[in-house]
């Protein structure tokens, strides 16, 4: 006898696979029809230091990696307080602070 849960798992796997195929097909179509669809819209390039800093500020509010990604052990960070400070203010507010101080 077949277990109904086995059928559900197989059906879910099939749906996930179909969704992945559909997504990759959409991306392929976008690349063919719009060759610049995944390029940055602004002057700041993907590997720019400014972009990395902005990402750090934006992500500071939501996560702090205090574990080594390879070993999984906790890291002692000297910069945790700075990271927490960055997370206190939203990225838009940081932008306003920087612009205000530059002008």
- Rounded Rg: 22 Å
**Span between N and C termini?**
75 Å
Counting H and I runs of at least 4 residues, what is the number of helices? Answer: 4
H/E series: HHHH
Number of strand elements: 0
- Structural class comes to mainly alpha
Main sheet makeup: none
> Beta-sheet strand percentage?
under 5%
Q: What labels would you give this structure?
A:
single chain, 103 residues, mainly alpha, 2 domains
Question: How is the secondary structure organized here?
Answer:
Blueprint: H1 4-33, H2 49-60, H3 80-88, H4 91-102
Explain what this protein looks like in three dimensions:
This protein is mainly alpha-helical. It folds into 2 domains: 1-39; 40-103, no CATH class. 61% of the residues lie in helices and 0% in strands. The protein contains 4 helices and no strands. This is Sodium leak channel non-selective protein. One of its GO terms (cellular component) is plasma membrane.
Summarize the structure.
The chain is mainly α and 103 residues long.
């Amino acid at each position: 006898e077949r277990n109904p849960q086995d059928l559900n798992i197989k059906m879910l796997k099939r749906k996930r696979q179909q969704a992945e195929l559909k997504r990759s097909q959409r991306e392929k179509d976008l690349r063919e029809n719009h060759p610049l669809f995944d390029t940055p819209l602004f002057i700041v390039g993907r590997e720019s230091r400014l972009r990395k800093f902005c990402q750090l500020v934006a992500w500071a509010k939501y996560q702090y990696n205090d574990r080594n990604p390879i070993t999984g052990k906790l890291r002692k960070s000297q910069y945790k307080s700075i990271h927490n400070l960055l997370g206190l203010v939203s990225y838009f507010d940081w932008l306003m602070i920087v612009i205000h101080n530059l002008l």
